[in-house]
Amino acid sequence: MALLSKGRLSKMMLERLEELPEGITFIKEIVLMKVVNLLTFSTNKEKGN
Amino acid sequence: MTVQLDTAEIENQDFKFIRPNKNNNLNYSTELRNKVIELIDGWLENNYKNELLYAIAIEELEAWCLTIYEKKDSSISANPKNQLMRILSKRNIKIDGNNRANSFEQKVTKGFRKFKKLNEFMLYNESLEMFVNEVLEQLKQI
């Protein structure tokens, strides 16, 4: 899954990430990857792929 | 491709954005999400509309993680980030920079492993539910 971060989309929005406590910044990416991968896996399973 | 954006403090950025009215507005999350999608599409000049997944978190994506730990509407949490950190601290889930395979982030998001669970978590955050439905819709078309 390609992830276009809001930082890449719009630099000014990246500033908010810097306020996050250490360790929490990448949670966003991991959440998205997990959710999308889980849904992809479940859908493929349903389709019988 | 997934575009992620938190709506928290969106009106304080250096672009024009007006939130929909929140008071007694049952469609607040949907309206806000649609406005943000419109904004992103505008930035991208509607070029990638069919190739994007819009992960719009209302108001912060940490509220999606909160659904793993609390069985209540996480979108009304005043500060989901702090609330999440408080819960993790109580559960002794700590940052361990030396263990990449089982990193802090992996531990925190461990709940997002089963489809059945995700269906349950969705009940506690409308923006998570909208994202999940959008992904499922896109996957159906593949």
Descriptive labels:
heterodimer; A: 49 residues; mainly alpha; 3 helices; 59% helix; B: 142 residues; 2 strands; 7% strand
Summary of the model, kept short:
Chain A is mostly helical and 49 residues long.
Whole-number tally of structural domains of chain A: 1
Helical content of chain B (DSSP H or I, runs of 4+):
40-55%
DSSP summary, beta strand count of chain B: 2
Shape of chain A: rod-shaped
Count of domains of chain B: 1
Quaternary structure: heterodimer
Q: Which runs of chain B of at least 5 residues are low in confidence (pLDDT < 50)?
A: none
The total count of strands of chain A amounts to 1
Class computed from helices, strands and strand pairing of chain A: mainly alpha
Structural class of chain B: mainly alpha
Arrangement of strands in the largest sheet of chain B:
1-2
Return the string of H and E elements of chain A: EHHH
Computed over alpha carbons, the radius of gyration of chain A is 15 Å
Shape descriptor of chain B: globular
Q: Tell me the fraction of residues in β-strands of chain A, as a range.
A: under 5%
Radius of gyration of chain B: 16 Å
